[in-house]
Amino acid sequence: MIVLNLKCENCKNEFEGWFSSSKSCDQQIKKGFVECIRCASQKVQRGLSRPNVAVKKGSVKSEEKVLKELKSKVKEVNRFIEKNCEYVGDQFSYEARRIHYDKTKKKPIYGTASKEDVKELNDEGIEVASIPWIKEEN
User: Fold this and answer.
1) Residue 86 burial by CB count (10 A; 0-12/13-18/19+): exposed, middle or buried?
2) pLDDT tens for residues 23-60?
3) What does the alpha-carbon distance between residue 38 and residue 65 come to, in Å, rounded to a whole number?
């Protein structure tokens, strides 16, 4: 896995992306699979990234182990959000606007919104973040 810096051509937001290789990153950008985390635009390009530093063979974790750890961390973030935020479902855009414009009722929320809704919220100056969600296995 490599971490590459990405830049949105639309809103100039800079963010990181994790890929199996730089070639994989280029392919995913070309196919429109990579989008800006702020405005959901697919007009993304690779930015300058840190150089790759070689390490001793055997000290690098297997890709499967890294993915398992990453999945575990995402689930940890998901549990934190569920515990500390109110779920508003598909009313997320409405609730985010209500909270933003009625400054006395600030509270953390989470839910679902379309790419267009996220872009509109960002255009209004309402900060939102897209977070990967992994369903807990029973």
Assistant:
1) exposed
2) 888 999 999 999 998 899 999 998 776 665 655 555 55
3) 29
My answer on whether 38 and 68 are in the same domain is: no
Q: Is residue 70 part of a domain?
A: yes
What range does the domain containing 14 cover?
A: 2-46
Kindly report the CA angle at 12 between 78 and 4, in degrees rounded to 5?
60
* Inside any domain, residue 57: no
pLDDT at 61: 62
Q: Computed over its alpha carbons, how large is the radius of gyration of the chain?
A: 18
Q: What is the pTM assigned to this prediction? A: 0.53
DSSP label of 41: -
Instruction: With beta carbons less than 8 A apart as the criterion, state whether 13 and 36 touch.
Output: yes
- In this structure, which amino acid lies at residue 30? K
Alpha-carbon span 22 to 3, nearest angstrom = 9
Instruction: Give the tens place of pLDDT for each residue, 10-19.
Output: 999 988 888 8
* Across 57-83, average pLDDT: 82
Q: How many domains is the chain partitioned into structurally?
A: 2
